[in-house]
Specification:
Blueprint (H helix, E strand, L loop, with lengths): L8 H6 L7 H6 L1 H8 L5 H22 L8 E2 L4 E8 L8 E8 L10 E2 L24 E2 L30 H12 L5 E2 L26
Antiparallel strand pairs: 1-2, 2-3, 3-4, 5-6
């Protein structure tokens, strides 16, 4: 199976001003609707209107309705935006904000859940419940972690005892405590989720090697 050829920079430059711009077409839709409906019968005009209305609905859901304010902040030279998603527990949609977006892809920790913000019009999303079973979760591993076996030599390049933390640095102290005393008690398991959605975990059941269920 051959990989499809990608357009070269030269090809992109040649076709740069010769490709249909969907935003321009959306902005000039009324004029486009009039020009396309010339010399059409009433039935064909109605069918054309249905096709264009369906395209407009898809375009606004996919790229946003035209006329939205720009996300670029001139004073800070960065982006600010908010997005919404259907609430998996029902009720009003959830609104998330990215107050300091610098580009490079949206990651979960860049979004804050906004309370008291009126949600925009969000298409009704499907809520699906499912059960995921993982028999063998993997131990959490990270560079420089203490070894989890007795009588094993530690890596000499890592010395947690030399870390100097301020007494008020609670996150750092908690991270150090977890690394030194509880790093072998943490496990990680994968959970496949659909893209562009919000998930909530209802329950987690753990079965240990002694048959006890927590």
């Amino acid at each position: 199976m051959t990989e499809p050829a990608r357009p070269s920079p030269v090809t992109s430059h040649v076709h740069r001003d010769r490709t249909l711009d969907g935003f321009v077409a959306r902005a000039r839709l009324s004029r486009l609707r009039t020009s396309l409906s010339e010399d059409l019968s009433a039935a064909d005009k109605a069918e054309l209107g249905d096709v264009l209305d369906e395209w407009v609905d898809w375009f606004d859901r996919r790229f946003g309705a035209p006329g939205n304010p720009s996300s670029w902040v001139d004073e800070r030279l960065e982006y600010q935006f908010a997005l919404a998603a259907p609430n998996p527990r029902g009720g009003d949609p959830l609104v998330f904000g990215a107050p300091e977006y610098l580009g490079g892809g949206v990651l979960w920790f860049e979004l804050d859940l906004l309370d008291g913000v009126p949600p925009p019009d969000v298409p009704d999303g499907e809520v699906e419940s499912f059960v995921e079973t993982r028999k063998f979760p993997q131990s959490l591993r990270w560079p420089g972690m203490p070894v989890d076996r007795f009588w094993e030599m530690e890596d000499g390049s890592v010395d947690l005892g030399t870390l100097s933390l301020d007494p008020a640095d609670l996150p750092g102290l908690l991270a150090l405590d977890m690394a030194a005393t509880g790093s072998t008690d943490w496990f990680v398991t994968e959970l496949a989720l659909p893209a562009a959605g919000v998930a909530c975990i209802d329950t987690i059941t753990v079965s240990d090697t002694f048959g006890r269920v927590t």
